[in-house]
Amino acid sequence: MGRTLVELFYDVVSPYSWLGFEVLCRYQHIWNIDLRLRPAYLGAIMQATGNKPPALLPKRGEYLLKDMKRMAKYYQVPVKISPDDLTRMLSSSTLGAMRFITAVDMTQPQYMEPLSREFWMRFWSQREDVSQPENILSVAKKAGLSSELIQKLLEMIATPEVKNRLKETTEEAIKYGAFGMPAVVAHFNGERHLFFGSDRLELLSSVIGEKWLGPVPS
Hints:
EC number: 2.5.1.18
Number of strands: 4
Number of helices: 10
Structural class: alpha+beta
Protein name: Glutathione S-transferase kappa 1
Organism: Thinocorus orbignyianus
Low-confidence stretches: none
Distance between the termini: 24 Å
Oligomer: single chain
GO molecular function, one term: glutathione peroxidase activity
CATH superfamily: Glutaredoxin
Mean pLDDT: 94
CATH class: Alpha Beta
Largest sheet: 4 strands, mixed
Family: Belongs to the GST superfamily. Kappa family.
Order of helices and strands: EHEHHHHHHHHEEH
Shape: globular
CATH topology: Glutaredoxin
Helix content: 40-55%
Radius of gyration: 17 Å
Number of domains: 1
């Protein structure tokens, strides 16, 4: 039996995407799957689908703060959440970061996992800005990229090729039915199965016939 293609559409502005990313990275060595990381732009998905950030509803925002703390502990992912993070999410642009990750995907895909993780670490664990070139450079160095390679990738961010690739990936997620992130698409038995959120991975395992061992499988 062939391996199941599982695509993860994500943006590093989304803490729930970080949870889903870490769990799927753990299971890619346990399940019979090929995990494909698909950097996309959450802002464009929200705009195209008419979706609104859940934190705009005050009571839901209060709940999300508590929920994320519980989820971070349960998933064993070092998300550090505080009341001002809801505003920080809404006011931060990750377009440059997602274009940089896209450029890496196009040229050096072996760095996708450590680079994406480092962006989340910087934004959601160390609570630092990831929009400026100097911060992107720092993240990329921490992920193991050379200074020469980083400079080439920074130059690629402004090219039509990278911009179009990110746009096309985002549009592909929307065509699959995505309205937020993380969006996980499993290609199984000739069908495409969309799962929204980091708390649907147990259901994903059931659909593709794999065993769920919790968010941190031993």
